[in-house]
Design brief:
It contains 15 helices and 15 strands. It is α/β, with parallel strands linked by helices and 496 residues long.
């Protein structure tokens, strides 16, 4: 009798899904349509959430898949973002620069963040990838610099604003964006990255700059040795702040920022005595690390965000494919060849350098021209290769997470996660390399799911979308998690 009931129940589920599909498209579309999820759909407290990926730990699940087409939790922003640059306080000269670059209206995050920074608040600026966060802090800072510059004695190696990043690639990119704006305003931007720090100590640069864009390692060394001065710095920006606040960087960052007189709120009508702080990222902890209080009063931080933070990109379809590890190369070749045939730029992410190297060699051996970018390469080599992709000379790039954070890749139409990332924050940043402000239409993400740990994370992501929640564990301290996992493994080995 129970078997008959189960057959009836399954038939009803399929009938219900079919009727639903006639009415509207699903938010989650599955190979097995009984698992489709529709806007407004809820789940019984007793039955729980029905996941398409529930049985994916079983070997027989290979070949199953589902596609997330949006997030039912996406909210409508208030009309604040419909305001003009003039209405949110941006001066005429900067509006003209934006117009010359084809930008007529601010994005949602710009409309919220620019007034806060212009008013002198220490700001936590956090929003989804590709929504215009860089301009959201550059524009008000340049406006402040123009206001203050005439009253600040010119001194070499003594900028008015410093943008600090965790990586050389991101510093270089932000420097290019800032330079494009600054040259139209008769301002100077310098980009400083590591690699030749000792040479700079022996032969210090002597230059005048209004804004310095730099990496944490290079800047902390050159400030400590007195080569770069901080007495005129009135703006400090931490871009990819969640990474800089991670255990990997926090000690060095805290020691550096203790040197700056960060204030609760800067008086922007005149050259301030103190310094204004901005923390910027697409993924930010809800509770900042205790170490933050060693250099700034957490109560002074004004949070500016959007409703789509820590959620699936609502405009980029994301396919999750359960696959065997031996099947991955064949499926990759099929997808990459289709992208090449359609002239669609694609980024392929792996978790390890060795895998990234294999992907690049495999595709090249199969007549698909592919470049490789990973953290073990010299800086100039990485930047040169990434420039080939940005300029359109190459359409396929194999990379590790070194290319996942902050890099503005407007050409990218397809992201393939050959290895599914180990952490939710990395997934958000990888997906954020496509579907950005100014990207072409029809962008997409394809995820290969092969290992039990990957299945577990996918199940948590699917649950979050179905229950209209933020993605799970975005605030993880990656270094600490790794250390705890190693410690538990050692403990188990000793006990065994």
């Amino acid at each position: 009798m129970s078997k008959i009931r189960q057959i009836i129940k399954t038939s009803y589920c399929r009938y219900y899904s079919a009727q639903q599909s006639k009415k509207k498209l699903p938010i989650i579309s599955c190979k097995r349509p009984e698992f489709n999820h529709y806007e407004g759909q809820t789940y019984s407290k007793f039955e729980g959430v029905k996941l398409a990926s529930k049985g994916w730990l079983h070997n027989k699940s290979k070949g199953d898949y589902f596609v997330i087409y949006g997030d039912a939790s996406k909210k409508t922003e208030k009309d604040v973002y419909k305001k003009s640059f003039e209405e949110i306080g941006v001066e005429k000269e900067l509006i003209e620069v934006m117009s010359n670059n084809g930008i007529s209206l601010p994005t949602k995050i710009q409309a919220k963040a620019i007034p806060a920074i212009l008013k002198g608040y220490n700001t936590v600026l956090t929003a989804e990838t590709g929504c215009g966060k860089t301009l959201a802090y550059l524009l008000p800072i340049f406006q402040h610099i123009r206001l203050w510059k005439q009253n600040v004695p010119e001194d070499f190696n003594s900028p008015l604003a410093v943008v600090i990043t965790p990586s050389r690639e991101l510093a270089t990119q932000i420097g290019e964006i800032a330079q494009n704006i600054a040259q139209e305003l008769n301002l100077n931007v310098t980009t400083l990255v590591g690699g030749k720090t000792k040479q700079k100590m022996l032969n210090p640069p002597i230059e005048y700059c209004d804004m310095l864009v730099t990496t944490i390692g290079a800047y902390s060394k050159l400030v400590t040795t007195g080569i770069y001065k901080i007495n005129n710095v009135h703006h400090v920006v931490l871009d990819e702040a969640d990474t800089l606040l991670d255990d990997s960087f926090i000690d060095k960052l805290a020691n550096l920022l203790k040197k700056f007189p960060l204030q609760y709120k800067v008086d922007i009508q005149r050259v301030p005595q103190g310094c204004q702080l901005s923390l910027v990222s697409a993924t930010m902890p809800h509770e900042l690390p205790d170490a933050v209080s060693s250099f700034v009063d957490p109560g002074s931080l004004k949070t500016v965000t959007t409703s789509n933070l820590h959620r699936i990109l609502p405009h980029v379809p994301q396919k999750f494919l359960r696959i065997g590890k031996a099947q991955k190369p064949v499926e990759l070749l099929r997808l990459a060849q289709a992208n090449v045939n359609l002239n669609q730029p694609v980024m392929i992410f792996s978790n390890k350098t060795a895998t990234s190297n294999f992907v690049s060699m495999f595709l090249n051996e199969n007549n698909i021209e592919c470049i490789n970018i990973n953290g073990q390469m010299p800086v100039l080599q990485k930047l040169g290769r990434f420039e080939q992709f940005k300029s359109g000379r190459i359409n396929v790039v194999s990379c590790t997470d070194i290319a996942s954070r902050g890099l503005d890749t407007l050409r990218t139409q397809h992201i393939i996660n050959y290895d599914f990332p180990l952490y939710t924050a990395d997934y958000i940043h990888r997906c954020g390399r496509t579907g950005r402000l100014g990207s072409p239409p029809n962008c997409s993400v394809t995820n290969f799911i092969a290992w039990p740990r990957e299945v577990e994370l996918v199940q948590r992501i699917e649950t979050s979308v179905r229950k209209q929640l933020e993605l799970p564990s975005v605030n993880a301290n990656i270094k600490r998690i790794i250390e705890e996992r190693i410690a538990k493994s050692v403990e188990r080995a000793l006990v065994g």
